[in-house]
Design brief:
The complex is a heterodimer. By secondary structure, chain A is of the alpha+beta class. In chain B, about 60% of the residues are buried. The chains are: A alpha+beta, B alpha/beta.
Chain lengths: ~260, ~400
């Protein structure tokens, strides 16, 4: 089995968007695209120069629960009012638009794949990135989870999730590699210490305790990647952290902290 | 530039396709689809390929005999809204029947590809709610199916299965990616069997969205031809059963494939077809199939001026010495968006038993800028290996190499 390693991980939230929103490069970008871009930029920062040689070996695997629902909403509402369909809103409305925008801006020419599976969207993205790395399709994978709250649809979202849940939005990015990728970099450091051994999904939903619901504060469907980034950033991460979902199901990632060589 | 790691890849075992099912605007099942593709008969009306209600009604009795009968009756109470599930369940049922699989188990995997899922069920309600024309209660009746994951779970409930499942939504490339992911899963023995499918149901949102991009043709598309005007959107569902060690004779082998990102533009391909070129060359390397073994390329061939020129340019460069026959069949069945890769893969499989390269349907006037051999009429041929291309918005490309086992 080809081992997988986390090289770096980062997150971004609504509060980070300030400068990007005024940048003409992001004029047509959605908030989801911008948040995901920031999270990726942070995750890539220590490796940016090294990864320039590997653009064809870098893949992007994006997980999102609701996709670009904000752009879909804008298109539909404007069309209903005026009979005019905005091409920008339409091209931004696809679930895959976020990944398309990111691969273009970051010149990623490996794989670009979008997956959407409600609470497990981030887990699915990690799963598929791990598959591509294990099968040597690529050497490096950016696994991204992103979801936004749609202005005007707050009441709709609160109906879709348990009443007690505090909803949020954000993006997380994890830079993964396989053994060949680690050999290309020929370095130690934090990446070498954290292996991803596997991921498992619970099947049976159960009621959530108050304590667990509070832990989900700022929840969004693809927040798994962000939470994994937080776990990775801890000095002593849990070897098998659990990631609870609003229906009481959970996922578990098996990490192995190795000795620094 | 560093060398591709795929160059040193030795030949590996293929995965096998053991069942196929589809319902689309041409009718019900792979054989009907193949017959009309061979004849070059177009089912595009007013620029789109819709599934007539009578097709949906005709599959009712068959579905009620299927393992999914529980809940199917309820679906038919609201036929229009639930076209997505009816089409999906029927295509699954047909594929499972052919493969001899009774039901998916926990060691199997389901990969569903879609770009719009159940959007026809909620698009109008969402706009009406936003403009204060309807209440939140009325919107929520349909909107809970907005997340693709909820649609997947409802489909699995109808099928009565609990297994690992994924929804791939990489635009029009989604189902080709899903097939290749299934192939990779099977090769590493993560799952015993993979059920892979794609479903699209046309909606006002999708139709008006493409209209806003000015890429639609109001008559049957004419891929690779001089007067091509644009694409024909269509709807339907197509599923494949894939396994590594089939118990019965498979329909074909999937020798290999690829998925790449072009990183050029959100809705237009690189004019030189860099993504197509990379996807096709990677797929040939991955499958250990040489270019002269490919007898036919089933092109993405949407009929849009930009796509066809880019794809033809890539084929011309990759197969410089002796390019194989190329045709697109989208003039017959339209562009089924995220499900097109699987629908057109079924045509590739049918070409093995049909011993024929289907024609590139359309008016036939050549484009002098396209210098690849387009099959203007059906060509009798014992196809050994067929290459299938797809591309999607967001700049992603995939290719698959199917091998004839007959």
């Amino acid at each position: 089995m080809n081992e997988l390693f986390i090289l770096n991980a980062a997150q971004a939230s609504t509060g980070d968007l300030g400068s990007l929103e005024k940048d003409p490069v992001f004029r047509k970008a959605t908030r989801g695209m911008m948040m995901a871009f920031l999270a990726i930029q942070r995750a890539l920062a220590p490796y940016e120069n090294k990864l320039k040689d590997f653009s064809g070996q870098l893949g992007l695997f994006l997980g999102t629960g609701h996709g670009e629902l904000e752009a879909t909403h804008q298109f539909l509402t404007r069309f209903k009012k005026s009979g005019f369909g905005s091409p920008t809103f339409f091209q931004n409305s696809l679930h895959n638009s976020t990944a398309g925008f990111l691969t273009q801006k970051l010149r990623i020419t490996g794989v670009s794949l979008t997956t959407s599976n409600s609470y497990f969207s981030g887990e699915n993205a990690l799963d598929l990135a791990a598959l591509a790395l294990r099968r040597d399709q690529i050497l490096f994978a950016l696994v991204v989870g992103v979801d936004v709250l749609v202005p005007g649809l707050e009441s709709v979202f609160s109906r879709m999730y348990p009443n007690e849940l505090n909803l949020g939005e954000g993006a997380g990015a994890v830079l993964l590699t396989n053994l060949k990728g680690m050999e290309e970099f020929e370095e130690g450091g934090r990446g070498r210490r954290c292996s991803v051994l596997g991921i498992e999904y619970s099947c049976q939903p159960s009621s959530l305790s108050r304590e667990k619901l509070e832990k989900l504060a700022g929840y969004y469907d693809a927040n798994f990647i962000s939470l994994l980034a937080q776990e990775w950033a801890r000095e002593e991460p849990d070897a098998s952290p659990l990631f609870y979902k609003p229906d009481g199901t959970y996922s578990r990632v098996h990490l192995q902290m190795n000795e620094t060589p | 530039m560093r060398p591709s790691i795929k160059q040193k890849k030795p030949a590996e075992d293929p995965s096998y396709i053991t069942g196929a099912g589809t319902i689309n605007c041409t009718g019900i099942g792979p054989d009907v689809l193949w017959n009309y593709v061979r004849a070059g008969r177009s089912f595009i009306k007013n620029g789109v390929g819709l599934i007539p209600d009578e097709y949906l009604l005709s599959v009712k009795s068959e579905l009620l005999q299927s393992p999914f009968k529980h809940g199917v009756s309820d679906l038919y109470k609201n036929l229009k809204i639930n076209k997505f599930y009816i089409c999906s369940l029927f295509a699954v049922h047909q594929a499972l029947q052919q493969s001899g699989w009774e039901k998916l188990s926990s060691s199997d995997c389901l990969l569903l590809a879609t770009t719009s899922a159940q959007i026809p069920a909620w698009e109008t309600a969402l706009a009406d709610y936003s403009l204060a024309n309807i209440s939140l209660d009325r919107l929520m009746g349909a909107f809970w199916e907005e997340p693709f994951g909820n649609v997947l779970r409802k489909l699995m409930d109808f099928m009565g299965v609990r297994c690992q499942a994924y929804v791939i939504s990489s635009a029009c490339n989604a189902s080709t990616q899903a097939i290749y992911l299934a192939h990779l899963f099977l090769k590493e023995n993560k799952f015993n069997r993979c059920l892979v499918g794609g479903t699209e149901v046309l909606s006002e949102f999708v139709l008006n969205g493409f209209k806003s991009l000015q890429v639609l043709s109001d008559s049957p598309a004419t891929p690779f031809q001089r007067r091509r005007k644009g694409i024909n959107l269509s709807e339907g569902s197509a599923f494949l059963c894939m396994e590594k060690a089939p118990k019965s004779r498979p329909l074909a082998a999937l020798a290999g494939g690829s998925f790449v990102s072009e990183s050029f533009h959100m809705t237009s391909p690189d004019p030189e077809g860099k993504g197509y070129f990379q996807a096709m060359s990677s797929a040939l390397q991955d499958s250990s199939v040489s270019s002269d073994e490919i007898s036919w390329i089933h092109a993405h061939g949407t009929g849009s001026p930009q796509n066809d020129l880019a794809e033809a340019s890539a084929i011309e460069r990759l197969f410089a010495k002796d390019p194989p026959w190329v045709s697109s069949t989208k003039a017959v069945h339209g562009h089924m968006l995220g499900a097109s890769g699987i629908l057109e893969s079924i045509i590739c499989l049918q070409s093995f038993s049909g011993d024929e390269i289907p024609q590139n349907a359309g008016d036939g006037e050549e484009d002098p800028d396209i210098r690849i051999p387009i099959a203007k009429s059906p060509i009798p041929n014992r196809n050994r290996c067929v290459l299938k291309n797809t591309a999607g918005f967001g700049g992603n490309n995939s290719s698959l190499v199917f091998r004839n086992l007959l």
